[in-house]
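Most newcomers find our protein records easier to grasp once they have seen one. A learned vocabulary of local backbone shapes supplies the integers on the structure line. Here is such a record, shown just as it appears in the course material:
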Amino acid sequence: MGRMTLSARLMLGIGMMVLSLLVTAALGVYGLAQSQSTMEQMVDKDWERARAAADIIYIANQFNNGMFLMFDNPALLPEVKAKFPGQRGRITKNFDKLATLMTEPAEKEFLADLIAKRKAYTDVYFKAFKLFEEGKFEEGHTIFKNEAPGPLVAYMKKLEDLVDQQNQHFDANASAAETAANTLHVLLFSVTLGSCVVACLTGFWIVRSVTVPLGGEPHTASEVMRKIAKGDLSAHVPVKPGDRNSLLADLAHMRDGLREVIGNIQQNSLEVAAAAQQVSVASSQVASRSMEQAESASSMALAVETLSTGISGVSENATTTKQIARDASTRSHAGREAISSTADEMQSIA
């Protein structure tokens, strides 16, 4: 992780946040699907069963009301009889609908029992009604009064059980929907909170990925580099304690190194200037001595010329002296001969 590039870290952080958003969206879609399924169950099945049961109870009550009205007024028989086809067709349609909606084994058993209780009641009902049609109102009334209450109560009780059952289905589905909604809320809150935590941690990680290598904020590093580039080596570099590897730490080292280099250059410049001054003084001295040597050389040349002239005179004098010496030698030899001759003569005289 420490060797990842900044772009890779940014892509990883963005990917983690996108993944969190996708998980949140997936949970939301899942929750909506569950809610929709529950609503469809309640609307398409439970509500239809409850409505069919309520309609059957309503029509059964109309049957009963018609029978009771005929007890008081037999003249209503044609009117009541005219309503039979529509009422029976409507009840049959509702029972057919219940047969398509109640598909579980327990539900089928319940529906079969309900149909049996309905048949037991309708058998008594139409038996009494047939007697009414034959004008045997007292006999029909007695049969209905004696035989109908039991099947009627059982039939109505079964219908009420059906309604209660649908209410229980409604309550169970509503409770399941509420539980699913609460669970979804908790999941969404947890995922959202987790996404926020991941986003914060990822943002913190990305920021540290930028600021740790830089040693501070990017604009701070940029400002320091701009000042150093302009030659301002007095610029303050905010380096954190213990920071030795960041860009700002390197900039601080570079600034100090440049200060040292420039200080050395200035020191060397002063030394070079001092050496140049010394060379200038030495050059002046050399020039002065050169002039003195030139004058000495001129004097020496004159002396040499004078010496040469003297040597020429000495040479001439030496030649003259040599000639004189020769003459003196010749004369000395002649004098020795004269002395010797004189001595010989004196000896001969003696």
Summary: The mean pLDDT is 74. DSSP finds seven helices and no strands in the chain. The helical segments are 6-72, 77-101, 105-133, 137-147, 149-214, 218-229, 247-349.
